[in-house]
Structure formats: C-alpha cells, structure tokens
TrEMBL record, chain A:
Domain of life: Eukaryota
Gene Ontology biological process terms, A to Z: aflatoxin metabolic process; detoxification; glutathione metabolic process; xenobiotic metabolic process
Keywords, comma-separated and alphabetical: Transferase
EC number in record: 2.5.1.18
Gene: GSTA3
InterPro entries in UniProt: Glutathione-S-Trfase_C-like, Glutathione-S-Trfase_C_sf, Glutathione_S-Trfase, Glutathione_S-Trfase_N, GST_alpha, GST_C, GST_superfamily, Thioredoxin-like_sf
Occurrences of domain GST C-terminal (ranges): 85-209
Protein name (database record): glutathione transferase
TrEMBL record, chain B:
InterPro entries: Glutathione-S-Trfase_C-like, Glutathione-S-Trfase_C_sf, Glutathione_S-Trfase, Glutathione_S-Trfase_N, GST_alpha, GST_C, GST_superfamily, Thioredoxin-like_sf
Domain GST C-terminal: 85-207
UniProt domain GST N-terminal: residue ranges: 3-83
The name this protein goes by in its record: glutathione transferase
EC number(s) from the headed UniProt entry: 2.5.1.18
Source organism superkingdom: Eukaryota
Entry's family note: Belongs to the GST superfamily. Alpha family.
GO biological process: glutathione metabolic process; xenobiotic metabolic process
Length: 223, 229
C-alpha cells in the first residue's frame, strides 16, 4: 500500500517549502504535521525519528528522511525530475545548488535585525541580478528550449521558479532585464501542477512574518 | 579524449578537500591548479569558467563543474559509490548531509582569531560527540555491517572517515565512547586507495596554517570578519 508522504515542520516556509514545491510540481499529494512547541521537537528526537535532531522530516516510502537535499534528491529521482543520465543530473545539481545559495539569503532574511533589512534586500537583489539570474537567462537563450535541462521538466525548473517568485516578493521588478526568465515564469505558472500550487488553498505557505520568526526561535532555539 | 580531472581552488582544505578524498578513494588521479592571486580567480571568471563566479571548480568529462555538492554527486555516481538504487542513495545523501554540516563548522576555522578558535573547537567537538557521532554509531550498531549503506563502500563511508579525522585533529580522543566508529575508522583507513591518500606524499592537504590564511583572504576576498558559532 502506498501512503502519502508526510511532512513534519512548522507552519511556515523555511526549509520545507522547496520540498512542498517539488512534491506539488510532481503532482504528489502529501500530509503535513505542524509543530507548535519545542517539546514536540525534542520528543521526535527522543523517538529516534530525527537522525540529527533536526527538521525538516519527510516520511516517505518507509523511510524517515532528514536533510533537505537528501529529501529533494529522492523525490526528484522517484518522480523523474532528475534528468535522464549522470550528466543531466550534474547540470540539474549545479543549477539547484546555485539557486539554493540565493534562497539561503531569503531564508535568513526574516531573522536579520530591522536596521539590516534594507541592506539585505539590496544584497538579495544584487546577487539575483548579477550572479544567478544571468546564468539561467543565458542557459535558456542558448538552447532556446522551455526547460533548463534536457528539454524536459526537471527539479531545476521547479527550484528556479520558486526562487524567482521569492525574490519578486522582495524586489518586484527583479525580472526586468531578463526576458527569457519572464517567459519561463509565465510557462511554469501555466503548468497544471504548478498552477494548482499557486492557487489559494494549496499547501504553499505565505511569506514569513513575525509570527513565523517567533515560532522558529521558540521551537528551534537556533543553535 | 578523457584526461584527468582538474581541480581549481585555493591553498586551504576548505570546500575542495571532500572532492579530493572521493576521487582518491575511487582510485582516480587528478591534477590541481592552485589560485595564488586574485588575478588567478579573475581570469577564471572572465574566461567564463565559473558558472556562479565561484570556486571550487572541477574540470571533468568535458564539463566545468561548480558547486561542491554537484561535483561530489557526479563523482560518486560515476564511480559506483552512490548505492545501488534510489533508497540507498537517499540514505547516503542523508548521512553525507550530516557529516557535511559537521565539517562545515570547521570551514572558517583557519580564519578565526586564536581566542575564537578555542571557542569554535569546543563547539564542534560538542556537536560531534552529542549529535553526529551517536547517529552514525547507531547506524553501524543497528545493521552490524562494515559499511554505512548497503553492505558495501560508498561515499558516505569516505565522508564520515574524513569528518572523524578532522575532529580527531581537534580532539584526539573524540571517538572515545564510540567503539563501532573506532573500528570503522580502522577499517576504512586500511582500504588501499584510502590508505594511499592518508600516506605522506599524497594530495591530501595538511591542516591549514596561518601562512595560507592571508593569501586565501586576498584571492577569494572573503573570510575577513569571521565569527565563531
């Protein structure tokens, strides 16, 4: 019997959002458990569910997987979003890892002090427009295909779409100057599974707010 | 024509060392190009060799690969050190993720002040002995096999050995209380390719000393104001 994957995290984007995106893009329904107290996290650790006492945790196919990359790689592999061979996988990995460095800035942003926020937005904007987006603009321009790798939909496309939308929330005009990425964003938005994920009522979480920050600080005691 | 992989990096262990471990363990010879000035880095950038303007970069099989994790995934896959199926790969990824986090705490170590080095050392040892080593000890205990995954050598074993040795450089008895990891360490160290890498004269980098710190700061233009965890 195949059960739905079960995601354990807090009720917010954080490090689980990329996993929600990928499952949703693959058309996979999943369940979610939202922790509300630190005690719940500690208990999971004591139960042996968390190999390194950390979240995210995804229970899938009889495994209790932790470590985002491990989880994402497994999902990508299982649902044929990881290229057709080692070399395509290498490209997907490079692109995903690069985007993930950009996403790290976004992940950390809510926790920066108020006086640093403006500077941090400027950094996100600069990195996006000078280091990361130009790479993908060029990739799309050079092969003229709809998808980043191998002329078919992959994890790299999902991750790039997530990053574009996340940066746009901070820097609304960030794609001006990137016509290929604008077209890419439109195409991705119209893919049925992604379209569904972008609609209200989907598992997609809203942008982090003060409540999210407070919950993270309380439960994870960021150490 | 298939040549040896070429590794482009600076003269500290940093982010390239796990790549060298993995290639060495797989019995693959490689070449190194050490960046010594910021012009060396700039040239790679202007030549379009660095996808995200960063090193590590490894030239392998006609690709200029960047992003350490992507490079390691490729090498592991190519040399059959990545398990036999998706589930074994997931376990390997999970285990490598842990050792990567642990060794990550030591990345900026050479660039810390003497006082902060003491703090960071204590921090890393505490993490190793309370969070990471117990996790791997349990894996070995639960299945009783010689290797972490699938009863054969994989990337996860090589990465864990690297982490163990790095921790022992900070605290020589870091493995006390972990008998299975002690046996694991002996076993994996004596695999011929790994034994060769651990012997003097190999491409393994010694612990970064102060001589290199300023050069690396200049070349990468980072690590200027590093704080401990």
């Amino acid at each position: 019997m195949s059960e739905k994957p079960r995601l354990t995290y807090i009720n917010g984007r954080g490090r689980m959002e990329s996993i929600r995106w990928l499952l949703a893009a693959a058309g996979v329904e999943f369940e979610e458990i939202f922790l509300q107290t630190r005690e719940q996290l500690l208990k999971l650790g004591q139960d042996g569910s968390l190999m390194f006492h950390q979240l995210p945790l995804v229970e899938i196919d009889g495994m209790k997987l932790v470590q985002c990359r491990a989880i994402l790689s497994y999902i990508a592999g299982k649902y044929n979003l990881y290229g057709k061979d080692l070399k395509e996988r290498a490209l997907i990995d490079m692109y995903v890892e690069g985007i993930s460095d950009l996403m790290q800035l976004i992940l950390m942003f809510p926790f920066s002090p108020p006086e640093a926020k403006e500077k941090n937005i400027a950094t996100i904007s600069e990195k996006a427009t000078e280091r990361y987006f130009p790479v993908f603009e060029k990739v799309l321009k050079q092969h003229g295909q709809d998808f980043l790798v191998g002329n078919r939909f992959s994890w790299a496309d999902v991750q790039l779409m997530e990053a574009i939308l996340a940066v746009e929330e901070k820097v609304p005009s960030v794609l001006s100057g990137f016509p290929q990425l604008q077209a890419f964003k439109t195409k991705m938005s119209n893919m049925p599974t992604i379209k569904k994920f972008l609609q209200p009522g989907s598992p997609r979480k809203p942008p982090p707010d003060e409540n999210y920050v407070a919950t993270v600080m309380k439960i994870f005691k960021l150490d | 024509m298939s040549g040896k992989p070429v590794l482009h990096y600076v003269s500290v262990r940093g982010r390239m060392e796990p790549v060298k471990w993995l290639l060495a363990a797989a019995g693959v010879e490689f070449e190194e190009r050490i960046l010594k000035t910021k012009d060396d880095l700039q040239k790679l950038r202007t030549d379009g060799c660095l996808l995200f303007q960063q090193v590590p970069m490894v030239e392998i099989d006609g690709m200029k690969m960047v992003q350490t994790r992507a490079i390691l995934n490729y090498i592991a896959g190519k040399y059959n050190l990545y398990g036999k199926d998706l589930k074994e790969r997931a376990l390997i990824d999970m285990y490598v993720g842990g050792t990567d986090d642990l060794m990550g705490f030591l990345l900026s170590f050479p660039f810390l002040s003497a006082e902060d080095k003491v703090k960071q050392c204590a921090f890393v040892v505490q993490k190793a002995t309370s969070r990471y080593f117990p996790a791997y000890e349990k894996v070995l205990k639960d299945h009783g096999q010689d290797f972490l995954v699938g009863n054969r050598l994989s990337w996860a074993d090589i990465h864990l050995l690297e982490a163990i040795l790095m921790l022992e450089e900070k605290k020589s008895d870091a493995l006390s209380g972990f008998p299975l990891l002690q046996a694991f360490k002996k076993r994996i160290s004596s695999i011929p390719t790994i034994k060769k890498f651990l012997a003097p004269g190999s491409k393994r980098k010694p612990i970064s000393d102060d001589k290199y710190v300023e050069t690396v700061r200049r070349v990468l233009r980072m690590y200027y104001d590093v704080k401990p965890n």
